[in-house]
Design brief:
There is one protein chain. The chain is built from 8 helices and 8 strands, in the order βαααββαααβαββββα. With 328 residues, it is an alpha+beta fold. Strands 4, 5, 6, 7 and 8 form a 5-stranded mixed β-sheet that branches. It has a 3-stranded antiparallel β-sheet with strand order 1-3-2.
C-alpha cells in the first residue's frame, strides 16, 4: 500500500475483496469496487486536510452553522472517483468464500483525465473572475457578486481534483494556480464589501413597522458581509420598499362585524449604476394577504405588519435563490 507522500513516483496497486455468491461477475465487480474505495482512502485524508474554506470566503462570516455546512461539503467532495483501474489478478477462494482481486491504476491516464477537467474549470474560473472585476468597475455590485460566487463555486468543485493531481503529478503546480485565483477572488470579494453597501428607503405609515423591517434586512445582509445604511461607501445599492394596507370589506361573522384589510407592498432594488435588479423585485398580490378583526384600526395595523413581514421574507428568499451559498 502506497503512502500519499510517494504516490506521485510509484504505481498504485491495491487488493480488493468481496463475499462469494452465486453471481460470479457481481462478486468480481464488488471486489473491484472495494479495491477502488481503498485506493480512494489513500487520498481522502489529504483532501480533507488541504481543503480550503471556499464557502466561508464568500459568505464573509465564521459562524458555527456555516462551519458545519462546510464540513458536510468536504465529506461530499471527498467521495472520490478512481479512474483507469485494471484488474491484474483475480482469485475466488471457495474455502473462505472470498473473491479477491489485485488491481493497478494507470496513473498517467488518470492524471491526464483529471488535468483536462481542471484546465477547463480553471479557464472558466478565470473568466468569472474577470467578469466580476468588469461589473465591479462598472458599479454593478450585485452583478459582480454573482460572478464572484460562480468563481468560488468552480474553485470548490475542482478542489479535490486539484489535490489529487498535486499528489500524482506535483510538478504541474496546478494547486498553486488555483491558490492564486482564489487570492484574486478574495481581493475582489474584499473590495466589494469595502466599496458597496445597501441603503433602505421605506414608505410606511407606521414607523415601528418600518424600523422592524430595516432591522431584519440589516441582520440578513450582514450575514452576507454587506452593511446596510451604517457604513458610507462610494457605491450604494438602494432598496426601496413600500409597506401599505388597504381596507377591503366588512363581513358579518356570527353576532359581530369583522373588518378585512389587505396587506400591500412592493420592493425594488437598484444597483449603484442605476440599473434595476429584477430578480429581487417584489410586489405583493392585491387582496391575497389579509387580516381581519372586530376593531378596524387593529385590523389595519395587523395588515401593515403582515405586509412588512411578507416583503422581508420574500426578499430574503429571492436573495438566497439569486446568491446561493457555495455547494457541490
Amino acid at each position: 500500500r502506497d503512502s500519499t507522500s510517494t504516490i506521485g513516483q510509484k504505481g498504485i496497486r491495491m487488493i480488493g475483496t468481496a463475499p462469494v455468491t452465486s453471481q460470479t461477475q457481481r462478486d468480481l465487480d464488488f471486489a473491484v469496487r472495494d479495491a477502488k474505495a481503498r485506493i480512494g482512502q489513500l487520498f481522502i485524508s489529504e483532501v480533507k486536510s488541504r481543503t480550503t474554506d471556499w464557502s466561508l470566503s464568500l459568505q464573509g462570516g465564521n459562524r458555527d452553522g456555516e462551519r458545519q455546512v462546510l464540513n458536510q461539503n468536504i465529506e461530499v467532495r471527498t467521495q472520490m472517483k478512481v479512474e483507469d483501474v485494471k484488474v491484474e489478478i483475480s482469485y475466488r477462494d471457495k474455502e473462505t468464500r472470498t473473491q479477491y482481486v489485485a488491481v493497478t491504476v494507470n496513473r498517467k491516464a488518470w492524471s491526464s483525465k483529471i488535468q483536462k477537467r481542471i484546465t477547463s474549470k480553471l479557464g472558466d474560473l478565470a473568466e468569472a473572475l474577470s467578469s466580476a472585476k468588469v461589473h465591479r468597475d462598472k458599479r454593478q455590485g450585485l452583478a459582480a457578486y454573482t460572478k464572484l460566487q460562480e468563481g468560488y463555486a468552480m474553485g470548490a468543485s475542482i478542489q479535490s481534483d486539484i489535490i489529487v493531481i498535486d499528489l500524482l503529478e506535483p510538478k504541474l503546480g496546478l494547486g498553486g494556480k488555483l491558490a492564486t485565483l482564489k487570492n484574486e477572488l478574495d481581493n475582489v470579494n474584499r473590495s466589494l464589501r469595502e466599496s458597496f453597501s445597501f441603503q433602505l428607503k421605506i414608505k410606511s405609515r407606521a414607523p415601528a413597522i418600518g424600523a422592524d423591517f430595516n432591522a431584519k434586512l440589516e441582520e440578513f445582509l450582514n450575514g452576507y458581509g454587506f452593511s446596510l445604511g451604517a457604513q458610507k461607501t462610494p457605491n450604494v445599492i438602494l432598496i426601496t420598499a413600500e409597506i401599505q394596507q388597504k381596507f377591503v370589506t366588512k363581513e358579518n361573522v356570527g353576532n359581530r362585524v369583522e373588518f378585512v384589510h389587505a396587506a400591500q407592498g412592493k420592493l425594488r432594488v437598484t444597483d449603484a449604476d442605476g440599473s434595476e435588479v429584477r430578480s429581487l423585485s417584489i410586489s405583493l398580490p392585491k387582496s391575497s394577504y389579509t387580516e381581519r378583526g372586530p376593531n378596524r384600526k387593529a385590523a389595519a395595523r395587523k395588515a401593515l405588519e403582515l405586509a412588512g413581514d411578507s416583503l422581508s421574507s420574500k426578499f430574503r428568499s429571492q436573495f438566497r435563490k439569486t446568491f446561493q451559498p457555495v455547494a457541490d
